[in-house]
Amino acid sequence: MHLTVLPRRPGEAAGLPASPPPSPRKPWLAVLLSLLWPGLGQVYNGRFRKGLSLLGVAAAWQLLGIGAAETFRWWLSSLAGYLLFSVYAAWQAQRMARGLAEFRPGVNNTLPVYLGLIVAMATISAVAGLAEHKAFPIYTVSQTSMRPTLRSGDYLRCEALGPRDIIRRGQLVVFEYPSRHSLIFVKRVVGLPGEVVEVSDGLVYVNGDPIEEGYYAAREPGYKSLDMPPARLAPDEYYVMGDNRHASFDSRSFGPVNRARMLATPLYIIASISGKGEFFADRIGLPAR
Fold it and tell me: What is the pTM of this model?
């Protein structure tokens, strides 16, 4: 009788648990994980501490980068920087994975660890996204009443207005239509609480004196602007009008806007797409004021 004795795995001769078989790292998977969140590719490659460091930087970047949305230049720089950081992490993870043909998974190369990191990063990304949306919401212009300052189809990055934020004359505001709060408009503030406001042929008079409006669109020959007799605003009311006075549905029609209905003030344009699908790249980054 002949017996065939199978070779022992490393560790069996000493009575120790057998080590896992080699599991070569896939470079494409390391790249994909790194692009998903910088650092995941390093964890996949068995470099747990390095991976956690990169994941920590990515999480901080997303959370601290919320404030960069206040100006277009900083917002764009933050996005570009995060993209470069992700590409660097992916390149490094890919190089590392190519040299791990004999890699044996460790205690941190398990599905629960991967899922835990993914859930944690997804939670941080969701929190950062919600916080940015609340502090710097995006609204779309759907009227022509603000031409030439704003066009229909402009996507505006705005800054949310808090109850204590001061609203000044000439400031653009995004607000809820007084009698139908689901409708969102953007106009310019021309009258402040307590003032007596009058509109005559498109010109605004406050307390009997005309106000300076360098942003006001030029009058169009043959068009008559809707006028309004003098009226005093309540302590919490603002008078708003469109720059295109001859084609604007504003406080002359629906009355003053209560402070509680004002949502945000526009900062800059992040995209501009016409109703026909035309994309206007030259409007990206223009300040909304």
Answer: 0.82
Domain-wise residue ranges, the chain: 27-134, 138-283
CATH 2.10.109.10 is right for the domain spanning 138-283: yes
What pairs with residue 287 in β-bridges?
Answer: 268
Judge whether 187 counts as a catalytic residue. yes
Q: Looking at 78, 86, 187, 225, which residue is catalytic?
A: 187
Specify whether the CB–CB gap between 215 and 188 falls below 8 A: yes
Instruction: Name the catalytic one among 145, 248, 251, 272.
Output: 145
242-275 tens-digit pLDDT: 988 888 899 999 999 999 999 999 999 999 998 8
List CB contacts of 103: < 8 A, sequence separation 6 or more: 22, 23, 24, 25, 45, 46
Which pair of structure tokens corresponds to residue 127? 């929190």
Pairing of strands 237-241, 257-258: antiparallel
Output the CA torsion sign for 253, 259, 262, 266.
Answer: positive
Measured CA to CA in angstroms, residue 18 lies from 14, 21, 24, 107 at distances of 10, 9, 18, 14
Instruction: For residue 276, indicate whether it is catalytic.
Output: no
Q: For the segment 179-203, what is each residue's pLDDT rounded down to a tens digit?
A: 777 789 999 999 999 999 999 887 8
